[in-house]
Design brief:
Layout: H1 2-19, H2 21-29, E1 31-40, E2 43-44, E3 53-57, E4 68-76, E5 79-90, E6 95-100, E7 108-115, E8 119-125, E9 131-138
Antiparallel strand pairs: 1-2, 1-3, 1-9, 3-4, 4-5, 5-6, 6-7, 7-8, 8-9
Length: 139
């Protein structure tokens, strides 16, 4: 009888661990991030294009591709522009989708290449078939 309960408990633990990879990714994303590197088709872009680009990911409880809220802030000489977005995480915490509320920005779906509590590297291909890699640092 003990052996059966142990198997059930281990099975439940494995199920919880498998289902929570998206949530772990969301938990690590929560907070404010600054873009610290940006590549297009493998070439580094000038830091003037991204050094004042910030993303804020709000906490939420989500399952595979449920949406959470966030905001992108760009600071320029002309002023500060904030664009709200919805984001979701899927495929065991690897797929990352941002859908901007603004009609001028296309939805962006990519993959998380690396993620720690302090750094995120996200790669995506836009509608012009350009490969982008953004590196974020948490602050």
């Amino acid at each position: 009888m003990k052996f059966t309960w142990i198997n059930v408990a281990l099975g439940l633990l494995l199920l919880v661990a498998a289902c929570s990879k998206e949530q772990r990714t969301i938990n690590r994303l929560e907070g404010d991030w600054q873009v610290v590197a940006f590549k297009k088709n493998g070439a580094d872009l000038p830091d003037s294009l991204y050094k004042e680009l910030f993303f804020s990911f709000r906490a939420c409880k989500a399952k595979d591709f449920d949406y959470c809220d966030g905001a992108m802030t760009r600071v320029t000489a002309a002023g500060t522009r904030v664009t709200d977005f919805k984001y979701s995480i899927g495929d065991n915490g690897k797929d990352f989708l941002i859908e901007y509320v603004s009609l001028t920005l296309e939805p962006t779906k990519g993959v998380i290449k690396r993620q720690t509590r302090k750094q995120l590297v996200w790669e995506y291909t836009n509608s012009r078939n350009e490969l982008h890699e953004m590196t974020f640092a948490k602050f």
